[in-house]
Design a protein that fits this description.
heterodimer; A: 4 strands; B: mainly alpha; two-stranded antiparallel sheet; about 55% helix; elongated
Chain lengths: ~140, ~150
């Protein structure tokens, strides 16, 4: 039964990491320059979960739970804003030459995802609470 | 053995089976909840009514063999519930939840999951409390006082 607590904990960890990714998306909603200052809009990161918990100690533990398998990059083409070749944020080459760059992040979408992550976290928390109550009931048998 | 007949008398074996079943099923439900946002994940559970039937058959067999007041319960193996050598029940979930598939090919159903979680926890507590009262009774008998 204490394995159940690990399962719920893996769920909470995965949802928290998902929340980190979503926060990074929202924080970079207007980031159109890369580290070296070139026009290269930030691509939306997509957290992808998979069943199983590779960090668990036992084989049975590894088959239960959840983990963040991959943070994928959104392959949708980045959006562009107005045509302004003089802007430092405009593309200097490629099909969008002269257009001011923008990211493909929709903050409303990210907020809703964040809300869902929060609810999923709470569901795991409720499961962990139930596990705790069951363990207490089991321990009372010994008292 | 004296102690064997103490711990396999009356309802104790039945409660013990219910106790192991709910403890093992709790793990499955936690797993389904942990994977609430996993794409391609299909929730699976074990059928509670099938387990109840299995338990009823075992109780009926015990009644036929020993008159029902003593003796251990032996559950028949089903495809979902297998009794292990150490007394635990190994569950293989094959009963689908039957919900519609969402766009990420997951059939999550949070309301049903939470309902299952609460029901299972309450069943566990019932088994645990009844088992505890049986042990209290034994303790009172051993101490010769109520």
């Amino acid at each position: 039964m204490f394995g159940s607590l690990d399962i719920s904990a893996s769920g909470m960890i995965a949802q928290r990491m998902r929340m980190d990714v979503l926060s990074a998306n929202i924080a970079n909603a207007n980031t159109v320059l890369n580290e070296s200052g070139q026009v290269d809009p930030y691509r939306r990161r997509i957290p992808l979960m998979a069943p199983g918990n590779p960090s668990a100690g036992s084989a049975q533990g590894r088959s239960f739970g959840v983990h963040l398998a991959e943070v994928a990059l959104d392959q949708a083409p980045p959006a562009v804003r107005e045509f302004d070749p003089n802007s430092p944020l405009a593309y200097t080459s490629g099909p969008f030459k002269g257009y001011v760059a923008a990211t493909n992040i929709n903050t409303t979408f990210e907020q809703i995802n964040a809300m869902e992550a929060m609810r999923a976290y709470e569901a795991n928390l409720a499961a962990a609470e139930a596990t705790k109550q069951m363990a207490q009931a089991a321990l009372r048998l010994l008292a | 053995m004296l102690f064997d007949s103490l711990t396999t008398s009356g309802s104790i074996p039945t409660l013990e089976k219910l106790y192991s079943f709910t403890a093992s099923r709790h793990r499955l439900i936690s797993h389904n909840i942990a994977n609430i946002s996993t794409p391609d994940f299909r929730q699976a559970d074990v059928s509670v009514s099938n387990f109840q039937e299995q338990l009823r058959d075992a109780v009926a067999r015990r009644r036929a063999e020993t008159g029902g007041m003593h003796g251990d319960l032996t559950l028949n193996e089903t495809s979902e519930v297998k009794p292990a050598a150490d007394g635990r029940l190994v569950l293989t979930p094959t009963t689908p939840s039957g919900n519609i598939l969402y766009h990420d090919r997951s059939n999550r159903d949070l309301e049903k999951l939470m309902q299952d979680l609460v029901e299972n926890t309450m069943t566990f507590r019932v088994a645990s409390d009844l088992l505890r009262s049986r042990f209290e009774l034994l303790r009172a008998a051993i101490a010769e006082r109520a």
